[in-house]
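Archive transcription. Copying these from loose printouts into the bound notebook so they stop getting lost. Printout 1 of 2:
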Amino acid sequence: MSTKEIIKKEVEKFTAAMTPDDFTELTEMENSLIILEVPFKDYTLTDIARIVESNNARVVNLSVLPISDGLSVWISLKLNISDPSSVLRSFERFNYKVVYYYMKEGEINDTHKERLNELLYYLDM
């Protein structure tokens, strides 16, 4: 694909209106996704990015969808980590409302499963 075609696709995506269905389909992308509901007057991208980056994660994709009441927005953050638990806790600590999150099964869950299987194996002996 040529550079011109890539730029054309990006401009088309940018100019096309995003529907709520398009917005929720972002959850099927790889890595993890967090959707926040933030009052418009409190929306500051630098604060959100600081919270994410302070947890050793990076924002790969960001989308903003105004809610029909006009007082708040939904912010979709695609992150480069598969387990955003620490980021979620930080958002809660700073009083951000997490509407939805999606993550692949994290390393912590795999470790817990392995340890549980070892324990069950030990108990069967």
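Printout 2 of 2:
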Amino acid sequence: MKIQTVGVVGAGVMGIGVAQNLAQTGHDVILVDIKAEILDKAQQEIKNNIRFQSLFQKTDKTINLEEVINRIEFSTDYKLLENADFVIENVTEKWDNKKQVYSLIDAICPADCVFAANTSAIPITRIASATKRADKVLGIHFMNPVPMKPMVEMIRGYHTSETTIEIAQKMLAQMGKEWVIVNDSPGFVSNRVLMLTINEAVFLLQDQVATAADIDKIFKGCFGHKMGPLETADLIGLDTILFSIEVLYENFNDSKYRPCPLLKKMVDAGLYGRKNGKGFYVYQ
């Protein structure tokens, strides 16, 4: 089974990356969001990303920007998803938003269409409960920037069928991705560890143990990480980090997931990181 038409819901940082990756691997993409201006910005971001990627790619194969963009339909009309073979959801990490989206697309999409939640922390079984196709719902946690990251975390919900897993594996193979399958739990493997690390790094900064640059320098120099935890937070988006750590705190009811007050303050101040130019660092 070749999955040709893929719906991508949410044109934020992750949705943009997923749509670009799909289009670059020959898929027809329906990128849906609630506002036309968000979609206009997404189209420009994809063009910028392709130009940037072309400068640094290590192969002789050039990326045809116009061809990639033409494979993506940018729309505010969710009804277009009635033609989708597979849908990848990337909306904000808030349960009320996700629940509303899944209820909507469940009524529109074909009965055999698989839903993949690209979520950082919300349990897949909970997401599946908002649909009438729980066996066709799974998690695919893409990493940022999506086109340049070779591996994803695939999450099996309580009701996820083997057929659904196999379909998702075929689609990921078409996208050029490898995967690791894990069982459902808030935050899964990656973010149960990563969010704690980032949150604790923010506490270190708040407590004036070290500067942001020095905290990151230790992780890069001592452990060989390509990016430090605070640089990673800026890349993901501090608002997304806060949403994710709050989901972990809510689900586990464990004080170790208590969000750092400095993180909350920065989000309240609109310091989201790379997405708007200022977080722990300033970006031009």
